[in-house]
Amino acid sequence: MSIKTYVPSQESIERNWYVVDAADQRLGRLATEIAAILRGKNKPTFTPHMDTGDFVIVVNAEKVDITGKKRDEKLYRRHSGRPGGMKTETFAQLQSRIPERIIEKAVKGMLPKNSLGRKLFTKLKVYTGPEHPHQAQKPETLEINTIPGGDR
Fold this sequence. Notes:
alpha/beta, CATH 3.90.1180.10, four-stranded parallel sheet, two-stranded antiparallel sheet, 6 strands, globular, ribonucleoprotein, ribosomal protein, Ribosomal_uL13_sf, Large ribosomal subunit protein uL13, Ribosomal_uL13_bac-type
């Protein structure tokens, strides 16, 4: 008798949709929770090499918060691929220009750096305002409290 490891089939994996409100949430702690849900670590069927996670919709991305002096000191870099093509901007500049990208970059950095991570990243949907076009999926509201020390 040999003991077999349980591996869920793609048909048996249940995919849920969750809505997370990013208003007045801490960026890093929020991104950690979202990455765990995308990965499926909150489920008993979690398998490291498979996509067992759920879809996450983030609303109010422009209201995400950070601590300390990061608003002026945290830098986001991108490169055009051409010589001298490095572009740099602060958290505040990026938040005023494309606030969705802040949450996307934070979550993407917490996912695996391989084809599985790229597949998981497609299940993250980030929107600036309180509205999103995914009402047909009947998403559940997910409460994430990222502010330490209880209710403030």
